[in-house]
Amino acid sequence: MPGRAKSATKKRQDACKAHDDLMSKAVSAYCAELAKKLGIKHCGLWTIAKDFERMNFEATGNYIKLSHATLACLAAGKRSLAEMNAAKSWLSKEETKQVLAYIEEIGN
Length: 108
Hints:
Number of strands: 0
Helix content: 55-70%
Number of helices: 5
Largest sheet: none
Distance between the termini: 26 Å
């Protein structure tokens, strides 16, 4: 909606989503680097992280810091914090949708 400011929570959600999207692209690029044949020069974690930070800043004007340590963990197959928290949820996504649909039905 034009003319309305976003809440601090919504701004933080948008920033986290942008960071997660950029990090997933960096993980894909790093995995592609690892798939290169031996003898071909590979880019390291730090270089990939800095390149994606720079490319994102040039494209959007927003600086998003990427940790090379987090990049290494994600490339090794570990889950992100958001995925771990989602796994701890009491309800699955499908169950949540069903509960919300039921609440909307009762409300009308």
